């Protein structure tokens, strides 16, 4: 079937599920055959498979008995061949999983291991898509009242993800924590302590990103994380000089940047102290104190803490 035919069948199946059940099941059989081929060897002729996956994800809710766990073969394929699949197919399959999760066909806990695994891909749109969905899913779950079960589950996963040897995956885990804290979804002591634990990561990038959280400087970093650009050492992230910069300055800082930085100073101050006050681990707090007073010894910084309040 062409994409147009699938879209037509999709509308009809949603309006009359029983009347078009046989047609949908025929497409499901076709999908299973293509899925088996891609599991053996991912190919470049993927457009039909991507369209078919999207179609079935759209109508899966109308056929709960025929497709009770449609997300599992998609997870299996991505988990096995995520690094080999074409970027467009990888994003289509991920979008299908997100759609299924939004419609309650699968739990966020089923998707998190795969999503953080895919953060290792050199695919910025994919990383941005996954990051945005994880943050939005947790926010939505806590919109009316706190979902402590989900929060504990996600935080437990992020705790292990923070220590991932892959820097990209660990940095995304940290970005999720700081973004949810910034949006006042997770503003408890455990969230702050998880960020503090990230200072133990072997990568200096993770250490710096975690310490910036306590200085209230993580907002710009999160914007970059949402765009999927976690490599701060890439050429496009380095400040440019000359006429190509904002307002022709050598540093690339415009008057608007200065104005925004000045006017968010009060917020930065509050985030800095509220974050430090929530740190419970002595070792993590000592590291945060050392950052707050560069050049000072831990003992000196500790003695200055009462003055902060």
Quick take:
Helices cover 65% and strands 0% of the residues. With 309 residues, the protein is mainly α.
Write the layout of secondary structure elements.
Elements: H1 3-15, H2 21-40, H3 47-59, H4 71-81, H5 87-102, H6 108-118, H7 124-141, H8 148-161, H9 167-182, H10 189-197, H11 204-214, H12 218-226, H13 255-263, H14 265-278, H15 282-292, H16 298-304
Structure keywords:
disordered C terminus, 309 residues, 16 helices, mainly alpha
- The helix/strand class is mainly alpha
Instruction: Report how far the terminal alpha carbons are from each other.
Output: 67 Å
* Alpha-carbon Rg, integer: 23 Å
- What is the beta-strand fraction? under 5%
DSSP, total strands: 0
Helix content: 55-70%
Order of helices and strands: HHHHHHHHHHHHHHHH
Oligomeric category: single chain
The dominant shape is elongated
Mean pLDDT: 78
Q: Quickly count the helices.
A: 16
Poorly predicted parts: 224-253, 264-273, 296-309
Largest sheet: none
Describe the overall structure.
With 309 residues, the protein is mostly helical. Helices cover 65% and strands 0% of the residues. The chain contains 16 helices and no strands. The protein has helices spanning 3-15, 21-40, 47-59, 71-81, 87-102, 108-118, 124-141, 148-161, 167-182, 189-197, 204-214, 218-226, 255-263, 265-278, 282-292, 298-304. Helix 6 (108-118) runs parallel beside helix 8. The longest helix is centred in the N-terminal third of the chain and has 20 residues, at 21-40. The chain is elongated. The N and C termini lie far apart (67 Å). The model is unreliable at 224-253, 264-273 and 296-309 (pLDDT under 50).
């Amino acid at each position: 079937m062409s994409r147009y035919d699938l879209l037509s069948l999709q509308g009809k199946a949603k309006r009359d599920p029983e009347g078009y059940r046989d047609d949908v099941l025929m497409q499901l059989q076709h999908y299973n055959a293509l899925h088996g081929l891609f599991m053996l060897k991912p190919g470049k002729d993927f457009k039909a498979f991507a369209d078919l996956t999207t179609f079935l994800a759209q109508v899966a809710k109308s056929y709960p008995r025929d497709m009770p766990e449609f997300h599992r073969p998609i997870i299996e394929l991505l988990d096995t061949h995520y690094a080999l699949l074409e970027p467009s197919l990888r994003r289509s399959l991920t979008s299908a999983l997100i759609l299924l999760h939004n419609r309650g066909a699968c739990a966020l806990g089923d998707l998190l291991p795969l999503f953080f695994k895919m953060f290792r891909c050199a695919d910025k749109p994919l990383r941005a898509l996954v990051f945005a969905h994880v943050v939005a899913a947790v926010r939505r779950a806590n919109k009316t009242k706190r979902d402590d079960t989900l929060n504990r589950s996600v935080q437990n996963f992020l705790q292990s993800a923070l220590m991932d040897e892959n820097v990209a995956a660990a940095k995304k885990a940290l970005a999720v924590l700081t973004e949810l804290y910034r949006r006042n979804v997770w503003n408890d002591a455990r969230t702050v302590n998880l960020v503090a634990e990230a200072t133990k990561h072997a990568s200096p990038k993770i250490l710096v990103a975690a310490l910036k959280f306590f200085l209230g400087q993580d907002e710009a970093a999160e914007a970059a994380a949402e765009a999927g650009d976690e490599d701060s050492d890439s050429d496009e992230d380095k400040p440019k000089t000359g006429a190509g910069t904002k307002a022709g300055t050598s540093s690339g800082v415009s008057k608007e940047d200065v104005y925004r930085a000045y006017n968010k100073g009060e917020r930065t101050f509050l985030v800095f102290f509220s974050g430090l006050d929530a740190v419970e681990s002595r070792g993590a707090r000592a590291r945060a104190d050392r950052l707050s007073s560069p050049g000072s010894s831990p003992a000196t910084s500790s003695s200055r803490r009462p003055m902060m309040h």
